């Protein structure tokens, strides 16, 4: 007899929903047709719970928990948009803008940027926190792609994409605190890292204008966040063309 | 004066820095090398280098200074109100000599507990009511029980010796003064939870502790006292956040020391995915005494929810700086005024006044002088917006403005943030800049509102304890010293 | 007996151009024929595109401010317009975030500072000939060391981001204010870049 996958019932914003017992709260939210903003999460990659945008309130639980890494439980009562959460999210988005150098007017991702999208979603019309203007640089050493650190939000989607899907592990995080940056190889120019296969998956995964194709000019980036999930599924389900 | 039969000369970091080598040389020249023993911390660090003279009739004299020129009073409450459990051998035993440790009872509790079923050992711990001394105060017995209950035969015991709070040196004293005690505590834990492998993660800034541990591990293994339990040392690279348990485990694995969301807790999935028991140095160091004298004996000390004793590193604006071990529930007043001698007199002769006591380092808060009768236990301090923390206790006098203290700790957190999650990485930077405005007296009313809002956000949304508690020094000083922030608003009456 | 009908006083409207590229004003001009309606509804008392008045007047009801605060003149005008206006709107990304003019802040705190670095680059390094720093006290305003968004200099009542905000959004925004209603909020009113 085949084992029936156990499922659990929970309530999200007053709406009942039933999902597999090993689902995350984020999956449950989405399966209920609801939404919570995310940035570091990308379907197909290991979740890390770093951007904190997907935090939700769980009744009877003292702390806010990130939906992307929290497993559902029977009877869980989830709230995705309390006034408290909305206030925190707006502050978070302001902090993202203030910690980097985001000049959307001439960004390759203008109009197709997940950070912009969440800024609009949370109603950020200005940042109450002063911009920090960190002195960062642009790595244009790769033949096909570039990395503009000014626009990097340290979501590590590129790191995980390259490591988990492409298997090349070109990227890592270097330094700490506000000095953190994505590094290629052993903190080398990207173009010098021999492990890079030039597959472009990291560019596809990047939610902002940080990673880009060199042929793209302002507002021309076409992100492909769905590719991580497609490739991960293809691998687990052995969905290859030659079958 | 009858000559002492032997001398104990402190050879721990603070006394070394104060000239312990010269003092020892002098004592050796006077009394002969066989009558001078190197020991760990003798407690009153501020008067170091320290040496104790033991007399035939049991009398002990204490001296400070490179020429032992200051006679100190061992009957001062600083010493008499101490209750040495974790530190029972520290200052008596030669930390470099296994024979001396064995002669003073090291490893007897381990030998005895090997005769017990692991379950019985865990039960003894539960009976003791011991709670983790690394800061969070999680019940140790329950943690051991959790790890013991995990399936599989490969489990790991890890000791967190990354002590990084500014003003904290309790663990260092144990490591430098009685390293075998830690090894014994870990070996008992290994027996209780079914682990055969152990790691000690020590910060690189503790070279003497590392050296003593190396020697102790080598000696214990050569002599076979650990009975197959293998302990390895791992040296941190200077990141405060590596004291957070999941970051510490990543670091041991060779990865970047960044925390990860829990669950899973290390007890379920820790080092290389194995069930892992991770405890603080002082936690492990309390274990041999508990098993030797029984959980009930230990549980009889302290308060209803905070049992046993706690080691504190007493520093700041205080007459007697040093290391104390007291029963839980002792009042802050007893510690600061009676034992510590209060704030030293000002240079102009006026009386020094305690303004507040800072506990818990960058994760803690300030208890104002008016509340000095607060007993030190986990709940009482938490109710005041501070925490027990790992044991740093810094006395603050009137010369320090609270926004400045808050800024210091915020700067510490901003510099030590691992950068993984946004609220801590970017929020601490903004908070430090906001606090600058208060320190420089150019803040606005809106800054005060923003300060509180952002503190709330960073606290509620950060991934690990570092960010979650980084606002505590601000919130606690706002709670008790709000007027100082209001006075720093530009245009406010001075 | 009927009281004689006194037409309500027209709303006194101003637009100000600080450190911006004038693109927000161009977008405003893209309102084309609606500008006639606006002109009928308000009295334009100060504007680089619709008025010759050189001094910011007293008693302004509504003021749209394009651009960041980048030099001494910007700073002076910002303080003045705040003191003389009821409602101040940060108009466009440069006012809202300092945007492109703010990029020289990257060199604030770096060797030489932002003022020196940007002048050096613009007037010396990139000069074909006759390289020299502009110097005309009283005529060319001094640059501030940091370019600031408007709300870091004065209190701002509303924000209308965009580089530039589209003509439709400017219109929706002004129509609401002219009706005496709060400006529309929500996602349709927000864009960056
Ligand atoms: C930022 C941060 C730093 C920490 N540093 C230490 C430390 O230096 N030593 C320590 O024992 N625990 C430290 N902890 C607590 C550990 O994560 C963990 O709770 C503790 O080692 C568990 O041992 P215990 O139960 O014996 O206290 C730290 C926690 C955080 C969040
Ligand atoms: S990355 Fe996004 S938010 Fe940043 S400048 Fe580009 S479009 Fe704007
Ligand atoms: S292009 Fe491919 S291999 Fe190269 S860094 Fe990006 S994901 Fe990795
Ligand atoms: S480069 Fe892009 S994908 Fe990588 S961390 Fe930065 S923002 Fe995220
Ligand atoms: S709270 Fe700070 S230290 Fe902890 S994970 Fe986040 S950035 Fe790192
Ligand atoms: S999406 Fe969950 S923390 Fe970033």
TrEMBL record, chain B:
Entry-linked Pfam families: Complex1_51K, NADH_4Fe-4S
Membrane-spanning ranges: none
Cell cycle found in the keyword field: no
Keywords (A to Z) from UniProt: 4Fe-4S, Iron, Iron-sulfur, Metal-binding
The keyword RNA-binding appears for this protein: no
Residues in NADH-ubiquinone oxidoreductase 51kDa subunit iron-sulphur binding domain copies: 403-448
GO molecular function (one): FMN binding
Family of the protein in this entry: Belongs to the complex I 51 kDa subunit family.
Protein name in UniProt: NADH-quinone oxidoreductase subunit L
Organism, scientific name: Cyanobium usitatum str. Tous
Automatic annotation (TrEMBL), chain C:
Domain NADH:ubiquinone oxidoreductase-like 20kDa subunit: from-to ranges: 21-176
Sequence intervals crossing the membrane: none
UniProt cross-references to Gene3D superfamilies, sorted A to Z: NADH:ubiquinone oxidoreductase-like, 20kDa subunit (3.40.50.700)
Record flagged with keyword Oxidoreductase: yes
Stored InterPro entries: Hydrogenase_assoc-protein (IPR051349), NADH_UbQ_OxRdtase-like_20kDa (IPR006137), NiFe_Hase_small_N_sf (IPR037024)
Pfam families xrefs: Oxidored_q6
Gene Ontology molecular function: iron-sulfur cluster binding; oxidoreductase activity
Record keywords: Oxidoreductase
Keyword Nuclease: no
Name the record gives this protein: Oxidoreductase
Organism per entry: Cyanobium usitatum str. Tous
């Amino acid at each position: 007899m085949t084992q029936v996958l156990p499922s659990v019932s929970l309530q999200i914003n007053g709406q009942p929903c039933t999902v597999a017992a090993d689902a995350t709260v984020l999956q449950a939210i989405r399966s209920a047709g609801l939404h919570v903003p995310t940035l570091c999460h990308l379907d197909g990659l290991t979740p890390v719970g770093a951007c904190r945008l997907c935090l939700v309130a769980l009744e009877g639980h003292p702390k806010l928990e990130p939906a992307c890494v929290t497993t559902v439980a029977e009877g869980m009562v989830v709230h995705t948009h309390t006034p408290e959460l909305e206030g925190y999210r707006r502050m978070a988005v302001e902090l993202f803008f203030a910690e980097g150098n985001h000049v959307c007017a001439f960004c390759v991702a203008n109009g197709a940027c997940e950070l912009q999208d969440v800024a609009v979603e949370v109603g950020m019309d200005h940042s109450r926190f002063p911009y920090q203007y960190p002195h960062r640089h642009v790595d244009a050493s790769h033949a096909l792609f570039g990395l503009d650190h000014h626009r990097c939000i340290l979501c590590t989607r590129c790191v995980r994409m390259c490591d988990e899907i492409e298997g090349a592990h070109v990227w890592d995080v270097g330094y700490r605190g506000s000095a953190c940056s994505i590094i290629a190889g052993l903190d080398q120019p990207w173009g010098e890292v021999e492990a890079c296969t030039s597959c472009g998956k990291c560019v596809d995964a990047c939610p902002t204008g940080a990673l880009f194709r060199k042929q793209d000019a302002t507002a021309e980036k076409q992100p492909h966040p769905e590719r991580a999930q497609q490739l991960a599924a293809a691998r687990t389900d052995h969905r290859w063309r030659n079958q | 004066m009858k000559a002492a039969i032997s001398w104990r000369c402190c050879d721990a970091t603070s006394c070394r820095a104060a000239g312990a080598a010269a003092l020892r040389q002098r004592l050796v020249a006077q009394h002969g090398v066989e009558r001078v023993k190197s020991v760990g911390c003798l407690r009153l660090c501020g008067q170091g280098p320290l040496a104790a003279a033991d007399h035939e009739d049991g009398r002990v004299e204490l001296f400070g200074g490179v020429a032992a020129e200051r006679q100190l009073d061992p009957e001062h409450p600083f010493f008499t109100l101490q209750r040495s459990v974790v530190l029972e051998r520290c200052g008596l035993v030669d930390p470099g000599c296994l024979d001396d440790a064995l002669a003073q009872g090291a490893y007897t509790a381990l030998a005895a507990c090997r005769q017990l079923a692991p379950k019985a050992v865990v039960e003894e711990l539960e009976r003791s009511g011991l709670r983790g001394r690394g800061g969070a105060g999680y019940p140790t017995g329950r943690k051991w029980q959790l790890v013991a209950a995990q399936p599989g035969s490969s489990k790991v015991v890890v000791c967190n010796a990354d002590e990084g709070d500014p003003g904290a040196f309790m663990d260092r004293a144990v490591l430098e003064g009685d390293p075998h005690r830690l090894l014994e505590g870990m070996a008992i834990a290994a027996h209780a939870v079914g682990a055969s492998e152990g790691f000690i993660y020590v910060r690189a800034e503790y070279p003497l502790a590392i050296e003593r541990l190396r020697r102790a591990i080598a000696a214990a293994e050569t002599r076979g006292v650990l009975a197959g339990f293998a302990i390895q040392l791992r040296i941190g690279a200077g990141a405060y956040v590596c004291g957070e348990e999941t970051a510490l485990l990543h670091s041991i694995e060779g990865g970047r020391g960044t925390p990860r969301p829990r669950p899973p807790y290390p007890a379920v999935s820790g080092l290389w995915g194995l069930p892992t028991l991770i405890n603080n140095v002082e936690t492990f160091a309390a274990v041999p005494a508990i098993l030797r004298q029984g959980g009930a004996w230990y549980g009889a000390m302290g308060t209803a929810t905070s049992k046993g004793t706690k080691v504190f590193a007493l520093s700041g604006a205080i007459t007697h700086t040093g290391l104390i071990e007291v029963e839980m529930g002792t009042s802050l007043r007893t510690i600061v005024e009676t034992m510590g001698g209060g704030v030293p007199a000002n240079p102009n002769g006026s009386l020094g006044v305690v303004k507040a006591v800072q506990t818990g380092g960058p994760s803690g808060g300030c208890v104002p002088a008016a509340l000095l009768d607060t007993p030190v236990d986990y709940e009482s301090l938490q109710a005041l917006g501070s925490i027990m923390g790992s044991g740093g206790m810094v006395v603050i006098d009137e010369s320090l403005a609270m926004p400045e203290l808050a800024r210091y700790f915020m700067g510490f957190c901003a510099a030590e943030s691992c950068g993984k999650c946004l609220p801590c990485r970017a929020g601490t930077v903004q908070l430090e800049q906001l606090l600058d405005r208060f320190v420089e007296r150019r803040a606005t009313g809106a800054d005060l509102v923003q300060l509180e809002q952002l503190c709330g956000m960073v606290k509620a949304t950060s991934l690990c304890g570092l960010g979650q508690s980084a606002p505590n020094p601000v919130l606690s000083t706002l709670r008790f010293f709000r007027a100082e922030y209001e006075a720093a608003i530009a245009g406010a009456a001075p | 007996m009927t009281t004689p009908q006194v037409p309500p006083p027209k709303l006194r409207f101003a637009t100000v151009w600080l450190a911006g590229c004038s693109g927000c004003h161009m977008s405003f001009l893209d309102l084309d024929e609606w500008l006639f309606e606006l002109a009928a509804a308000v009295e334009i008392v100060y504007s680089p595109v619709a008025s010759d008045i050189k001094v910011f007047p007293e008693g302004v009801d509504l003021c749209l401010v394009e651009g960041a605060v980048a030099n001494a003149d910007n700073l002076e005008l910002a303080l003045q317009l705040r003191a003389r206006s009821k409602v101040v709107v940060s108009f466009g990304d440069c006012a809202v975030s300092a945007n492109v003019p703010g990029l020289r802040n990257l060199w604030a705190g770096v060797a030489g500072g932002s003022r020196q670095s940007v002048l050096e680059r613009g007037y010396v390094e990139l000069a074909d000939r006759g390289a020299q720093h502009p110097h005309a006290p009283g005529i060319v305003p001094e640059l501030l060391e940091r370019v600031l968004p408007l709300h870091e200099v004065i209190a701002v009542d509303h924000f209308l981001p965009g580089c530039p905000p589209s003509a439709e959004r400017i219109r929706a925004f002004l129509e609401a204010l002219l009706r005496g209603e709060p400006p529309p909020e929500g996602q349709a009113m927000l864009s960056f870049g």
